[in-house]
Amino acid sequence: MDFYTTLTLCLFSFSAGFIDAIIGGGGLIQTPAILFTLPQYPVPTLIGTTKIPSLSGSLMGAFQYSQRVKIVGKFIAPMMVIAFGSSWLGSLVLTRVPNGFMKPLALIILIAVFIYTLTRKNFGNVTDQYVSDRQKRLRMWLMGGIVGFYDGFFGPGTGSFLVLGFIALIGFDFLKASAHAKLVNASTNLASVLFFVSEGKLLYAFAIPMAIANLTGAFIGARLAILKGNQFIRVFFLFIIAATILRFSWDLITQ
């Protein structure tokens, strides 16, 4: 039973890594899968366990993108530090209070994101917005704090929110936004992993094989995104946002 359970989780984790590397949203697959498959464990333990495969996939995606996309290092490094601290805080709060209210809030935001992206045909296809260095710094640091906390506290959709922020606030195209999102997502996942390790809330027997599967999916997904370019990523982004909206809506209806 443990073998088939692990195999099932690995298949979901591979899919999550593939999707997450392209546009984010892997948590839409991986988190519900582990919650459904292992209902006998506490929710914080299961969410903590998913952070190890998420970290491995984020690191692989970040590495693949950094080989082909120019990274704005002087701004992204401080953003990663801020996101790391915020994610740690979010994970701490998760172990103290329920996070059920996050799903309706995230659903409203995602619907707005979907409509906005769908109606703006050039959104994310080109780098067409000039933002001063001072504004880039402030916006990226603020985004790192907010999205970092969200990732540690709830998680699903973090990569998509980061991509959206980099496009709407910084002016990146989809490819460049995905590359920077992977770096920030890696730092938030690392913070959560370290926190849950310190709390002893990880199931390593599932986390390690899932990490290998997620990493493999991320490798393929990132290579495909780089090969196909912005238009492919935009379509994938809309698909993932729509799927996330449907998933959250279903959860709220059934609950």
TrEMBL record:
It is a multi-pass membrane protein. Keywords: Cell membrane, Membrane, Transmembrane, Transmembrane helix, Transport. The chain crosses the membrane at residues 45-63, 75-95, 101-119, 140-170, 202-220, 232-250. It is found in: Cell membrane. GO terms for cellular component: plasma membrane. The keyword Magnesium does not apply. InterPro entries: TM_pro_TauE-like (IPR002781), TSUP (IPR052017). Belongs to the 4-toluene sulfonate uptake permease (TSUP) (TC 2.A.102) family. This is Probable membrane transporter protein.
